[in-house]
Amino acid sequence: MVISSIRTLLIEDNPADARAVWEALGEVPEAAFELKWADGLGKGLQELQSGLVDLVLLDLHLPESRGLATFITTHECAPGVPIIVMTGLDDRELALKAVRDGAQDYLVKGQVEGPSLVRSMQLAVVRHRMQGETEVPPGRDSLTGLYNRQGFLMLGEQLLRLADNSGCNLALVYADIDGLEKINRAFGRQEGDAALQVVATALRETFPESDLVARLGDDEFASMYFSCSDPPKGDFKAVFEQIVQAIPAGGPRPYSLAVTWGLSIYSPAKPCSIATLIKRAEAQGRPKFLDPAA
Prior knowledge:
By secondary structure, the protein is an alpha/beta fold. 41% of the residues lie in helices and 23% in strands. It has two domains: 5-131, Rossmann fold (3-Layer(aba) Sandwich), CATH 3.40.50; 149-291, Alpha-Beta Plaits, CATH 3.30.70. It has a five-stranded parallel β-sheet, sandwiched between helices. Strands 9-10-8-11-12 form a five-stranded antiparallel β-sheet, sandwiched between helices.
């Protein structure tokens, strides 16, 4: 179920930045929000204690608190409320630290547009509620920390509905490590697990936290991300280059690490299932070397 009405608390001391959020939300009139503005951390924490907040948009630099401490204080006040942090262009590393510590997403001030803001807010609440259903994050793969097939399908359905509502396309990237069993037999399962973790790390660092990355099976991975360009296939070359650049340096490997990559597109004008998207991406996949053998 897509959430269309979210009680949102904006904690932001700059009136111009607060107005920018209001105007961005106004670009999506079909999405209903109850937006409250607190111009300081103290006022924001008071609002949170009311229990009537579904989501927080949090500026990390406030008069009373700056940096990661702002997120930690807010999160400790209301651990059951998802938080999206808002930062400047120079604070991406700080924002990523907040995401690793529990924030659902981050947004860069001055780059917030209505459809992307709405998508981020809706997905943050959906994901947070799903995670709250169990003590362990649902649908996670124990080796890579990515979503497993079950988690991918559950959250993927939410992304399809968000795409239908926003009119944006979704791209599904499929990846299959070539010859994983040969790596296991020749060099041991520990080396095979290391290959899986290399690909998982590259995918996780390539796609924003708000998008969906999963290990579907033994040697299969997939990611879904929004692409509002038409057609969006032109984006894939740049995406693949980002994936290759994200391969961590871990010294020479005794084998050539190659992955078959494929892409399929979900269009709200021609809806289909996630299973169909996976099959399409798998069918048109092409092998690519990530790095050569030593």
